[in-house]
Write a structure and sequence with these properties.
The complex is a heterodimer of chains A (1034) and B (357).
Chain A lengths: L1 E12 L13 E7 L2 E4 L16 E6 H6 L1 E8 L7 E9 L12 E9 L3 E14 L14 E2 L9 E16 L13 H30 L3 E11 L5 E14 L15 H6 L20 H8 L1 H4 L21 H4 L6 H16 L16 E15 L10 H20 L4 E12 L2 E13 L9 H8 L24 E3 L7 E3 L2 E2 L10 E15 L5 H29 L4 E11 L3 E13 L9 E4 L5 H24 L6 H7 L13 E5 L5 E5 L9 E4 L2 H12 L7 E3 L11 E15 L6 H22 L6 E11 L5 E13 L17 H21 L6 H23 L12 H10 L3 H15 L7 E2 L8 E18 L7 H23 L4 E15 L4 E17 H13 L12
Parallel strand pairs in A: 9-11, 13-23, 18-20, 22-25, 26-28, 30-32
Antiparallel strand pairs in A: 1-4, 1-8, 2-3, 2-5, 5-6, 7-8, 10-12, 11-12, 13-15, 14-15, 16-17, 19-21, 20-21, 23-24, 27-29, 28-29, 31-33, 32-33
Helix pairs in contact in A: 7-9, 15-16, 17-20
Chain B lengths: L1 E9 L6 H8 L4 H11 L1 H5 L3 H22 L2 H6 L7 H12 L3 H7 L6 H5 L1 H8 L3 H19 L5 H9 L3 H16 L13 H15 L1 H4 L12 H7 L4 H4 L1 H15 L6 H21 L3 H5 L1 H15 L4 H17 L6 H18 L3
Helix pairs in contact in B: 2-4, 10-12, 11-12, 12-13, 13-22, 15-18, 17-18, 17-21, 18-20, 21-22
The chains are: A alpha+beta (1034), B mainly alpha (357).
Subcellular location (chain A): Cell membrane; Cell projection, Ruffle; Cytoplasm, Cell cortex; Cytoplasmic vesicle membrane
GO molecular function (chain A): calcium ion binding; calcium-dependent phospholipid binding
Protein name (chain A): C2 domain-containing protein 5
């Protein structure tokens, strides 16, 4: 079914001078969509033309609407010679195709030229009239919402999480076509930009189709990447998590929460009797949410949900009844097993039980096993038939299968925080995938056996549940040291936990976290083809092993016991491999306190040597002590005394699984554990080890007032101010030839450290502040060049961890005390459970105990950042709903926002950008659609543009400007979950040339400052006195 | 081993005021780094020289990229490339257009031409202001001059609107433009004791009273040129010195008024005709462009110096000029009261301002 696309060209401003004689320009505009082109009149002799054109109308298929961008070209009319192009604007129509996103694109957009950069701006109006599509066999997927955000978007609730969607599109790279020899760089760049726009549109449409097939209406955690394979082509691939989302209605009458939508929840209610007497939660809206959503998605419901949508179907039948399911832990053995089997059956029907989410709705993530990753080295060959991208698909399939099997061996049925990446050098390509093996609740899965499952889910205490091992302790897949959970004392936990997800909001954490990086360089010989691929795959295991060791040591050095947001990037160059692992270290209260690091020398005969060692040991111990102070890690030791020493368990090491396969199919699995050795003993047997320890100690601490993490938020800091500063920093370092591994390591490590130091210095005015979502990307653009790019956001916070107590009722405890408080409560409860209750199920008690503290925390959070409330744990249901009440009239607000802006005329609207999924101190009231932009910039006058730095600086600033302008045109005032996914920089200083490709993405949103919402939020708060509503009115 | 490329781009453009000032002052990156190290920013923020260098280079690059926009400050507000908060924009503009009094004193009243620009190295040596900074200031003068030259309406208002400058700075620029347009001589040795602010004050007086805009502010003519008609009329004042009776009458009126009110009465009496001739001659000659240029030197030579050699205090001068002006109105045969008031008002305030050491 067709849709009608309408565009109107209003005016231009700040146009460049195209006619030297008059110092003016005779500009006109070509508007092109698909194969149809319209032109405006020439507006003679002006740098600020007013075209005020008619509405240009395009009648097109919605399939094309999804694939094609609207292409606007501004030209200078020339009577005698060919018209000169001033620049272009590509407009992604997609946000207009979804009824819940933007309705019009209107505003000043930069006119971009790949050679000259931004050349003035053009004011356009774009609308789409879409007719309803009821065609079963349609190729379009209009209406499916896309989110880059890797959590459930802030103003939606997840009704269902369907699972993994992936798609891949290939084409020839225009830059490598024969025609490129004769056409201008501009034409070639534009062909490339346009092609990638088309390919991403197509990709999105195809993913959307899969989502519809699965019965979903949205893709969350949408991650799209380009592989510039050079001669062999251009691959655009994307992964995401299909969901059924429902907009949270912000009116109190309909305010509900996913967790009280299930009937079985009510059975549990009486447990809370003392606190919410006589008012069961079900008194809310009687309509079960599930039913609602189904009806609203009736068109797609007819499709079979059993997704086998991937182009390349696997014959692999999922094995049911995994081994670990049968023999679970002693405590809740049968329950756990049952639960596991049920969710498993739900998950195993999926081809890949993968989730790109890193933050989960409350109660969704039950247990975390550990990081699973897989890599494979491939030799690229020409893609012969772009319509059948079989090889690429097959490659990824291999890797995904591997990941899946790793997860299984960890006793997990799902992989969360899943991502995929590549690194290409000449014809060698490393494909990587990683994620966190986990057990999920079937609450959000369509065929989950709801009634039975929920009962067992209550077992898990929210602060520590996810740490409990999912695998069978008698049949541990790797050597592990298990202890009883330091929170609930009931289940086993590992001594360290590595994950790729964000820290769950309900997790109890001691102290603050920090960014931990492992950096490694390995030289390799120059080689070609198969030999090269083999060499690389031989090196990979060592690289990963060392990265892992470094991570572990650095974690210990900071006195922490868990890593979140782990991202290991391996980059391949002609003569070296680079490995960079970044993660946020924290001290999970549930996990045992990490032991120190012990240094052991191999040749104890020499006295000076021993002295040297003891010196180093002292230094290390001092550092650990200092770090513990710095990050405020002082775990409650009382607990330990009372409980007694944990049951001795076999010593364990890591849970980082991975393997490599080269072009051939052999898949080798390497156990990363350090054998039977004590995990924390560093043996100094050669100079290497000494170097390693030095490297350990040279990591300079963050300057006072700064914290850093690569996750969304920093545990232990809550009172963010509204000051945010997103930034991108890029450095390229030239190496000398003939460096040793050690030398390289040092240089690489210094490069990263110095970059961080520079960032701290730059942002010193924001202190106290935290650099969040620090995302490092490394590349080897050329031999002897290392490129490091960082995108992050600096958030400043109030130093005093106190609350504005004004509106709070007396029962509230200041936030500072909460962590300890939590501890206390749980501890007390523990005693209760052990002494008094033999008849009552301990699980029930634990629920009661955790509740008040949960509420406390919750209420303070709401005071602080209301927008976060819906991620808070189960116990806080009532509070959450109050928050929803507090948020008023999003629609009206957005409309008024827009009209305000259009009045304001020339002054530029401020658009915030952040890699986080939220904006501190503000509430996101509307998602306007995904921003996915790709730009190429080229210059042949590098020196004149200020050298490479000047060139790239301008380009990045231009990209920011274009993102902001497009968001503003959609009616938004911020981009969340922003990321720069590609920054490929190439230079040729001798020829005075450089070229750069940048790909950015994010979600355009409208947010409203909480201070503006305050007026309306007062009301529900004053209504709190009614105890019948329980904890509602915080 | 070297850093080949090093950039930092913030969504909100980060600009350090201190570095901005160093850049404006014409420091090279390396010199700026030295100054910053001496300033102690390193200890304060636990930074190394390397970090400081990287930051300084980055800031310099940002400023260079912004400079284009600063040439048209109105563009800064509605450009899309840099997201700069409004208060920051105002700071950037104000500091970019700020100038050194010692520099402006050197070029005040000179033609803002290429020739003058070439001589800037001498100015730089003389004033100790870096050449780069001199050039920036000179180019600012020239840019403002070019834009305002052709505009209708009040000069100060035009400058404020086009360059988004705060009021005092806009007034200073108006003075600079006015001086450059009329090519007032300010460089003579005898005028060296006068500061830029003295001249700026006088310029303000002239702009407000002697231009076309002054009488008829919404007229099509501009503020930058003196009112030709008025200058023509000034010739009529000559009667005050050519008519012997009138001159004597004027003198006796002034002397009557002054007697007993000052210690230097005798000197004033003795010098009356001389001083009066001086002032009226200046008025009569102003119709010639050449004599307009010498306006200030004439004031000094014909009035201020004689007064000073007679040891008049500025109170004396004030007294004298007040009575001198007022007495003329009492003269029977003197008809040009409006012109006289318009002329003497400015002359009086200019002289009083200029009457210092």
């Amino acid at each position: 079914m067709p849709g009608k696309l309408k565009a109107k060209i209003v005016a231009g401003r700040h146009l460049p001078v195209m006619d030297r004689a008059s110092d003016l320009t005779d500009a006109f505009v070509e508007v092109k969509f698909g194969n149809t082109t319209f032109k405006t009149d020439v507006y003679p002799k002006s740098l600020n033309p007013q075209w005020n054109s008619e509405w240009f109308k395009f009648e097109v298929d919605d399939e094309d609407l999804q694939d094609e961008p609207l292409q606007i070209t501004v030209l200078d009319h020339d009577t005698y010679s060919a018209n000169d192009a001033i620049g272009k604007v590509y407009i992604d129509i997609d946000p207009l195709l979804c009824s819940e996103a933007a309705t019009v694109i209107s505003g000043w957009l930069p006119i971009y030229d790949t050679i000259h950069g931004i050349r003035g701006e053009i004011n356009v109006l774009v609308k789409v009239d879409l007719f309803n599509d009821l065609n079963r066999f349609r190729q379009s997927s209009c209406g499916v919402k896309f989110f880059c955000t890797t959590s459930i978007p802030r103003c939606y609730r997840a009704i269902m999480v369907h699972g993994f969607v992936e798609e891949l599109v290939v084409n020839e790279d225009p830059e490598y076509q024969w025609i490129d020899r004769i056409r201008t760089p501009r034409a070639s760049n534009e062909a490339r930009q346009r092609l990638i726009f088309l390919m991403s549109g197509e990709l999105q449409r195809k993913i959307g189709l899969k989502v519809l097939e699965m019965g979903g209406n949205a893709v969350v955690g949408y991650l799209q990447c380009f592989d510039l394979e050079g001669e062999s082509g251009l691959v655009v691939r994307a992964i995401g998590t299909a969901c059924t989302l429902e907009k949270i209605s912000t009116f109190p009458a309909t305010a509900t929460h996913p967790s009280n939508s299930s009937p079985s929840k009510d059975m549990k209610e009486p447990v809370f009797g003392e606190e919410a007497p006589g008012v069961p939660l079900s008194s809310g809206p009687p309509t079960p949410l599930r039913a609602q959503t189904f009806s609203s998605f009736s068109p797609s419901k007819s499709y079979s949900r059993q997704s086998s949508s991937s182009d390349t179907e696997l014959s692999l039948t999922p094995k049911t009844g995994m081994g670990s399911g049968g023999s679970a832990g002693k405590d809740a053995g049968p329950l756990k097993a049952l639960l596991k089997q049920q969710t498993q059956s739900a998950l195993e029907q999926r081809e890949y039980p993968f989730f790109t989410l890193t933050v989960f709705p409350p109660g969704f993530l039950l247990h975390v096993g550990g990081v699973v990753s897989a890599r494979s080295v491939k030799l690229l060959d020409r893609i012969h038939n772009p319509d059948e991208p079989e090889t690429r698909d097959a490659w990824w399939e291999e890797i995904r299968q591997e990941i899946k099997s790793h997860a299984k061996s960890l006793g997990c049925h799902a992989v969360v925080g899943y991502s995929e990446s590549t690194s290409i050098c000449e014809e060698v390509c490393i494909l990587s995938a990683s994620g966190t093996a986990a057990i999920l609740s079937s609450r959000f899965m369509q065929d989950g056996p709801l009634d039975t499952e929920l009962r067992f889910e209550e077992v898990v205490s929210p602060g520590c549940g996810f740490c409990h091992i999912p695998y069978d302790e008698l049949n541990i897949p790797f050597p592990a040291q298990l202890t009883y959970c330091y929170c609930c004392r009931r289940y086993k936990v590992p001594d360290v936990l590595f994950t790729t997800i964000d820290l769950p909001t309900e997790a109890s954490v001691t102290g603050k976290g920090c960014l931990i990086q492992a950096r490694l360089c390995r030289t390799k010989k120059k080689a070609q083809g198969e030999v090269n691929a083999t060499a690389i795959s031989n090196l990979l295991p060592f690289l990963e092993y060392e990265l892992h060791t470094q991570l572990m040591n650095k974690l210990k050095l900071r006195g922490m016991n868990a890593l979140f947001g782990l991202r290991i990037q391996i980059s391949v160059g002609e003569t070296m491999l680079l490995g960079l692992a970044s993660a946020t270290g924290v001290y999970l209260t549930a996990l045992p306190s990490p032991g120190g690091i012990q240094i052991v020398g191999k040749t104890p005969s020499d006295i000076t040597y021993e002295q040297h060692i003891s010196n180093m040991q002292k230094k290390i111990n001092d550092t650990i002590t200092k770090n513990k102070e710095l990050y405020e890690i002082n775990p409650p030791e009382v607990v330990e005394e009372i409980i007694g020493s944990p049951i001795p368990e076999p010593r364990q090491r890591s849970r980082l699984f991975r393997s490599h396969s080269e072009s051939s199919d052999d898949v080798s699995e390497i156990d990363l554990s350090h054998g039977k050795k004590d995990a924390f003993v560093l043996e100094i047997d050669d100079t290497d080890a000494v170097e390693d320890i030095h490297a350990l100690l040279t990591d300079s601490p963050t300057p006072a007032g700064f914290y850093s993490c690569n996750t969304e938020i920093m545990p232990g800091i809550q009172n963010w101010t509204s000051a945010i500063q997103m930034f991108t920093s890029v450095r390229v370092f030239r190496l000398n030839a003939n460096l040793t591994n050690q030398g390289l390591n040092k240089i690489f490590s210094d490069l990263c450290e110095n970059l961080l130091k520079s960032l701290y210095f730059k942002l010193r005015s924001m202190v106290p502040c935290c650099l969040c979502h620090l995302n490092f990307t490394v590349a080897i653009p050329e031999d002897e060049l290392i490129q490091v790019a960082v995108t992050a956001v600096a958030l400043s916070f109030d130093k005093e961890q106190t609350l504005e107590n004004g509106k709070q009722s007396g029962e509230k405890t200041p936030i500072k005390a909460i962590t300890e408080n939590d501890e206390q409560l749980q501890f007390n409860l523990e005693l209760n459970a052990e002494t008094s209750s033999s008849s009552i199920s301990p699980k029930g008690l634990s629920e009661v105990g955790s509740h008040p503290s949960a509420r406390d925390r919750c209420s303070s959070w709401i005071e602080q950042l209301k927008l976060k409330a819906h991620t808070i744990r189960r116990g806080s249901v009532k509070t959450t709903s109050s928050m929803e009440k507090a948020s008023p009239l999003p629609e009206g607000r957005s409309r008024s926002l827009r009209s305000n802006r259009s009045y304001s005329g020339s002054s530029v609207a401020v658009v915030k950008m952040t890699p986080l999924s939220f904006i501190p101190g503000a509430k996101i009231i509307k998602y306007l659609g995904i921003i996915n932009m790709f730009f190429i910039r080229e210059t042949s006058s590098l020196r004149e543009e200020g050298g490479v730095s000047g060139f790239l600086h301008t380009f990045i600033a231009e990209v920011f400007a274009m993102v902001r302008a497009h968001v503003a045109a959609l009616g938004g005032n911020a981009v969340v979950s922003y990321s720069m996914k590609e920054c490929v920089f190439m230079e040729n200083p001798n020829k005075n040339q450089a070229q750069c490709l940048i790909n950015v993405s994010g979600d355009a949103v409208i947010f409203v400052r909480e201070s503006e919402l305050e007026l309306t939020s007062v009301q529900p708060q004053s209504a709190t006195t009614q105890t019948s509503n329980g904890g509602e009115g915080t | 081993m070297s850093v080949e490329l090093d950039v930092f781009v913030g969504n909100t453009t980060i600009m350090d005021k201190e570095v901005y000032q160093l850049w404006l002052n014409g420091y090279t990156v390396n010199d700026a780094v030295k100054v910053r190290i001496e300033g102690g920013v390193m200890e304060e923020c636990e930074a190394s020289a390397e970090v400081l260098l990287s930051d300084t280079m980055d800031q310099y690059r940002t400023f260079q990229m912004c400079e284009r926009l600063l040439h048209h400050p109105a563009k800064l507000a509605n450009q899309l490339l840099f997201q700069i908060p409004p208060d920051r924009q105002a700071m950037l503009i104000e500091r970019y257009y700020a100038f050194d009094d010692s520099f402006v004193r050197e070029v005040l009243g000179k033609k803002l031409s290429k020739g003058t620009k070439k001589d800037l190295d001498d100015v730089s040596i003389k004033t100790g202001i870096m050449l780069k900074s001199c050039r920036r200031q000179f180019d600012n003068f020239k840019r403002v001059f070019k834009v305002v030259e052709e505009l209708k309406g009040p000069l100060v208002e035009n400058i404020r609107q086009h360059f988004l400058l705060p009021d005092p700075l806009a007034r200073d620029y108006a003075a600079i433009v006015f001086f450059a347009n009329n090519r007032f001589e300010t460089g003579k040795k005898k005028l060296q004791y006068l500061t830029f602010q003295d001249f700026a004050f006088c310029a303000g007086q002239l702009i407000n009273n002697w231009t076309v805009g002054a009488v008829d502010n919404m007229m099509e003519d501009m503020d930058v040129d003196l009112d030709k008609e008025f200058l023509q009329d000034l010739k009529d004042l000559k009667i005050l010195i050519t008519d012997k009776d009138l001159l004597d009458q004027h003198k006796s009126l002034v002397c009557t008024a002054l007697r007993g009110k000052t210690n230097v009465f005798n000197e004033m009496e003795a010098n009356f005709k001389n001083l009066s001739r001086g002032l009226v001659n200046i008025a009569a000659k102003l119709i010639n462009a050449k004599d307009v240029r010498d306006f200030f030197i004439d004031l000094v030579e014909k009035f201020i110096e004689p007064c000073r050699s007679d040891k008049l205090t500025s109170i004396d001068v004030n007294l004298y000029l007040t009575h001198y002006t007022n007495s003329a109105h009492i003269l029977d045969t003197f008809k040009h009261h409006t012109v006289w008031t318009r002329y003497m008002g400015v002359i009086k305030s200019c002289i009083l301002r200029m009457y210092h050491d």
